[in-house]
């Protein structure tokens, strides 16, 4: 690539076509996809409902200003929110977290936020300042002030939650950080401390949400009631979208002039999100849970005993295979490319798997066997 900044370390092939859970590159090689575009295309690459909704909208209008009412925005928000929530639509996960950061400060009148080491919330300045990864922040200092960090799953974090905090932001599964799942009891103690000190609890569901773990949002499996939720990635199945979801009482702090976006809530992305949420039914989520249970059984049987594997962590269709230090995860990914399987990495030498939620058991098992053949 000659005309684009070298921001990404790219693999030397171009994925030019896709169908169902398979992608084809510019050399006509076809791959089974265990990435979903980093947790985005949960309904695969040829979902007829999403395609039809976007195509129909394309024949009408695909962008208007947010100066005008939008019925489709309101309909999608109604599908996304419960009865005590409102949504703000933007274009990505980092934008959703920026909106959450701003709303927390404006509503509470306080500035301090507690985030967690190893967490990831985005790369724009506010979201990057909440991201507990010095490698991502390096060279961009000074960051947004008044952000503190604590260790994940550590009760010492509770001592940092007092009435001077505006919010606590966390992922219930740290995806980029290595696919580490939070302890349920710890999360509930964090929530209790927030409630006792009038601190908002923000849960970043950008990667974990929209069915990835078998429920609409992953926090549902931890008996949490967050004040603010952020969503993106799978919400649009590949169209640019983000959403900040907050309690209705916050509306007074987020009125006209407080925040904004040119492209957020555009009608094409809303059409795609409508198609996603229409299919995210209890029956569909039950199928995800059933398939993921079989997948985890297979992983524990075939992959976990391997000498190259230290541990397997995650939940549902969000999986981290932690490799021995003697094996480089990027070498594994390249060998899997040769065998026709797309996978991802995460921190701490982790092979990350995020297959489309529509993938059947046969293809899930096929992917596991390919991974076993390399490891």
Which keywords apply here?
single chain; 375 residues; alpha/beta; Aspartate Aminotransferase, domain 1; Aspartate Aminotransferase, domain 2; 2 domains; seven-stranded mixed β-sheet; four-stranded mixed β-sheet; 32% helix; globular
Q: Trace the largest sheet across and list its strands.
A: 4-12-11-10-7-5-6
Q: Using the coordinates above, name the CATH class of the largest domain.
A: Alpha Beta
Question: How many beta-strand segments?
Answer: 17
Rg over CA atoms:
20 Å
* Mean pLDDT figure: 98
**Main pleated sheet:** 7 strands, mixed
According to CATH, the homologous superfamily of the largest domain is Type I PLP-dependent aspartate aminotransferase-like (Major domain)
The domain tally reads 2
Instruction: State the end-to-end CA separation.
Output: 32 Å
The helix/strand order is: EEEHHHEHEHHEEEEHEEEHHEEHEEEH
Spans of 5+ residues with little confidence (pLDDT < 50)?
none
Instruction: Name the beta content range.
Output: 15-25%
Number of helices: 11
| Relative helix content | 25-40%
Structural class assignment:
alpha/beta
Provide the CATH architecture of the largest domain. Answer: 3-Layer(aba) Sandwich
CATH topology group of the largest domain: Aspartate Aminotransferase, domain 2
Net shape: globular
Oligomer: single chain
Enzyme class: transferase
Cofactor: pyridoxal 5'-phosphate
Subcellular location: Cytoplasm
Catalytic activity: N(2)-acetyl-L-ornithine + 2-oxoglutarate = N-acetyl-L-glutamate 5-semialdehyde + L-glutamate
């Amino acid at each position: 690539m000659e005309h684009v900044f070298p921001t990404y370390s790219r693999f030397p092939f171009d994925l030019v076509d896709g169908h169902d859970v398979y992608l084809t590159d510019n050399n006509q090689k076809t791959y089974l996809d265990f990435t979903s575009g980093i947790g985005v295309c949960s309904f695969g690459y040829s979902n007829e409902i999403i395609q039809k909704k976007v195509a129909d909208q394309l024949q009408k209008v695909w962008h208007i200003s947010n100066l005008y009412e939008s019925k489709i925005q309101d309909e999608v928000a109604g599908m996304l929110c419960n009865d005590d929530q409102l949504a703000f639509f933007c274009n990505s996960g980092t934008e959703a977290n920026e909106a959450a950061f701003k709303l927390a400060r404006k509503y509470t009148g306080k500035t301090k936020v507690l985030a967690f080491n190893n967490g990831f919330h985005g790369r724009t300045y506010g979201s990057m300042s909440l991201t507990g990864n010095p490698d991502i922040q390096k060279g961009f200092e000074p960051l947004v002030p008044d952000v503190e960090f604590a260790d994940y799953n550590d009760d010492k974090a509770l001592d940092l939650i007092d009435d001077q905090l505006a919010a606590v932001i966390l992922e219930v599964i740290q995806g980029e950080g290595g696919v580490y799942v939070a302890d349920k009891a710890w999360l509930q103690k964090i929530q209790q401390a927030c409630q006792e000190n009038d601190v908002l609890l923000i849960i970043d569901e950008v990667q974990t949400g929209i069915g990835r773990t078998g429920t609409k949002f992953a926090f549902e499996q931890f008996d949490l009631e967050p004040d603010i939720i952020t969503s993106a990635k799978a919400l649009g199945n590949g169209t640019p979208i983000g959403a900040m979801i907050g309690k209705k009482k916050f509306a007074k702090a987020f009125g006209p002039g407080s925040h904004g976006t040119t492209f957020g809530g555009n009608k094409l992305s809303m059409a795609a999100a409508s198609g996603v949420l229409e299919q995210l039914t209890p029956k569909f989520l039950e199928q995800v849970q059933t398939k993921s249970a079989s997948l985890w059984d297979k992983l524990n049987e075939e992959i976990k005993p391997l000498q190259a594997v230290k541990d397997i962590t995650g939940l549902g269709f969000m999986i981290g295979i932690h490799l021995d230090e003697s094996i480089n995860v990027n070498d594994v990914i390249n060998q899997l490319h040769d065998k026709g399987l797309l996978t991802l990495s995460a921190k701490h030498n982790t092979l990350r798997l995020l297959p489309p939620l529509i993938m059947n058991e046969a293809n899930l098992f096929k992917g596991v066997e390919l991974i076993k053949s390399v490891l």
